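User: Before I run my own analysis I want an independent prediction to cross-check against. Here's the chain; please return only the structure tokens and, at the end, one sentence I can use as a sanity check.
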Amino acid sequence: MPKREYFIQKLQHCFLISHPYINKKISSLILGITAIHITMAQRSSILEGSSAVLH
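Assistant: Structure tokens:
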């Protein structure tokens, strides 16, 4: 039984260590996706503006 408790403790410890790292990864991924969407939107609006100027 103590062996199992030790294993569970180790597992929780590993999870606690990896959890903030996973959160950072997810948040950076979300930030990256939103940044890409924003730049794409800006690019399309710039293209529309330049095409309007050309026409």
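Sanity check: DSSP finds one helix and no strands in the chain.
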